[in-house]
């Protein structure tokens, strides 16, 4: 491939470049001159940014690169899958395995149940109200009234209008100062 790219020819048709993809859009053929090479369109594990400079001091971002075209020799094996596991530079070798978490195995039933509970909460129905309506439906179709919530450590006013003394337990045998 290097010979075909570097060779100078007097005939401009010999040095022509062509890239065509098959129906799947991921595999194709790269033609340089009269030689053809298999090519594959692969997704990179991360998005790369490319920069350009005009004066060697100011960088201008030109593109976000998320895919690459891999051209190989005829006898080289085709890459497995649509994602390239390595990046473009040596530090990104095996980037998918080393830098990203594994996708969790999710139970479809659990996801559906949690989604249903979240939708009920968003619509203002709490899980307690939902469970009470299910229990009440079994008892003649009447919904049970929710029990009043008890408040703890609240001083109750005395019956005769005086201030109430805080309730004491049997363990509070200490003498007040």
From TrEMBL:
One of its GO terms (molecular function) is RNA polymerase II general transcription initiation factor activity. Its main location: nucleus. GO terms for biological process: RNA polymerase II preinitiation complex assembly. GO terms for cellular component: transcription factor TFIID complex. The keyword Transcription regulation applies. It comes from the Eukaryota. Residues 1-126 form the TAFII55 protein conserved region domain. Residues 1-13 have a biased composition (Polar residues). It holds the Pfam family TAFII55_N. Residues 1-20, 138-177 are annotated as: Disordered. CDD domains: TAF7. It is found in: Nucleus. Keywords: Nucleus, Transcription, Transcription regulation. InterPro entries: TAF7 (IPR037817), TAFII55_prot_cons_reg (IPR006751). Belongs to the TAF7 family. PANTHER family: TATA-BOX BINDING PROTEIN ASSOCIATED FACTOR 7 (PTHR12228:SF0), TRANSCRIPTION INITIATION FACTOR TFIID 55 KD SUBUNIT-RELATED (PTHR12228). This is TAFII55 protein conserved region domain-containing protein.
